[in-house]
Each structure stands twice: as C-alpha cells, then as structure tokens.
Amino acid sequence: MKTQPKKYYYNLQLREIDKIKGLENKPSLLMHTCCGMCACYPIVYLTQYFDLTLYYYNDNIYPEEEYEKRYSELKRYVDIFNQENGQNVKLIKCPYHNKEYTQKLAPFKDEPEGGERCHLCYDLRLSEGMRYARENGYDYFTTVMTVSRQKDSLILNQIGEKLDNSETRYFFSDFKKDGGLEKGLELVKKYDIYRQNYCGCVYSYREMLERVKKDYEKNKEAD
Ligand code: SF4
To answer: For the whole model, what pTM was predicted?
Structure first.
C-alpha cells in the first residue's frame, strides 16, 4: 500500500463531507466505538451528516466488568444525546469473547503500547466492523479511535484504506482535528463521562497496575 501522510486522510474526510452535504438524504454510517469518552464528540460531529449507528465490538477489553462499564457509560451518553437533540443514534452491543481475542494478541504481549500488538488490535476490530457494515448494507464504516491521542490515526486510516470497498466505503477521519479533542474533553466534563486509566487489553491492564504501584511507592517515599 502506498504510504500517505496524516494530512492526506484528514483532507479525504473534509472532501467526503463536502460531497455528502449535497445529498438529499443522510447516508448510513456504522462507527466502531470503544467507549463514551472517545465517542462523545464524534457523535456530535457525525450526526450532522449521517444516520449514525455505533458498533460496540471490543473483545480486547479486560476484565468483563470493565467491558460492561464502558458500554453502560456509552449507552448513558447516547441516551442523553438522543433526548437532548431529537436524534436517533443507534447502539449495537456485540457478545464478549475476550479469551479468544487475547490469544490472538498473545504473540505480541511484550510489545510496548502503540506497537505491533496495537496495530493487530486495530485491524481485528476494524475488520469485524467492516464485515458487519457490509453484510448489513451500511453506506459507510469508520472508527472513533482517531479522536484519541494514544492511538495512531495514520495506521487506523491505512487499515481503513485496505478495507474500503465499493459496497461500504471507509470514512477516513481524524476526529482530533479542528478542536475535536478539546470539544470531547468539554463533553466528558459536562456529562461526567467515565475516564478509564488504561487502554483495554490484559497487557495494558497489567501495565496500569504497575504504574499505580510505582506511584504509590514513590509517594510513600516522599512522605
Ligand atoms: S493497548 Fe489498546 S490498542 Fe493496544 S493491544 Fe491493548 S487494547 Fe489493543
């Protein structure tokens, strides 16, 4: 695949929006969504142009209570958003299969966050989302994850480019741009949306526990 700069994908986002603005009816878009914190601003942005459905497919998240917590916070925000704005954003929750998913990530367990393990994790979730979107006749598919500073939007869009097809187009994005990151943080504050302190998989969970332990020991020494 030809390597494209980050800006190229953001320009594709703007160009696609210009095209959609000229349509009589809003096209349907399925968005892979990982949590309320990441989704709050992209929902506001995308509902201006699309008939939006969220796809909660996140077998990476460990443990199951965390998977349920992120889902219920997402649902709480979607319900508020729909009620306050007269919208009809739909939300699909997938069954939880963390064990099988973790086995797929296991060969890359020692990779640092942002490395090969994460690239595979993006690919697995986007591929499944695109499969569902295509089989169910959505016009577009995308992921919310480009809003996060911790995720590599270039890699995400490159995966999207690979998945793009004539039935369901991939909607390229960089939701951080044009103040998206700041607008998201304002919404998180306003609606008191849960902010997790690790990415999701068991490996990032263990790293978080280590971080917490180190901080605790450092603070104890300082006392
Ligand atoms: S750190 Fe996050 S993106 Fe990376 S493998 Fe774990 S859950 Fe997936």
So the answer is: 0.96
Residue nearest to atom 3 of ligand 1 (CA): 118
Contact of 201 with 100, CB cutoff 8 Å = no
Which spans in 137-179 are helix H? 153-163
Q: Which helix (H) or strand (E) holds 116?
A: helix 116-135
Rg of the chain taking only CA atoms, in angstroms:
18
Residue 66 near residue 196 (C-beta atoms within 8 A): yes
Mutate to test the pocket of ligand 1, among 70, 103, 119, 121 (most ligand atoms within 8 A of CB): 121
Residue 1 has a pLDDT of 57
Domain count, the chain: 1
| Ligand 1, atom 5: closest residue by C-alpha | 118
- Structural domain including 156 reads 6-197
Please report, for the domain that includes residue 15, its CATH number. Answer: 3.40.50
Q: Cβ-count burial of 29 within 10 angstroms (0-12 exposed, 13-18 middle, 19+ buried)? A: buried
Chunked mean pLDDT (size 10), the chain, 223 residues: 80 97 97 98 98 98 98 98 98 98 97 95 98 98 97 97 98 97 98 97 96 91 83
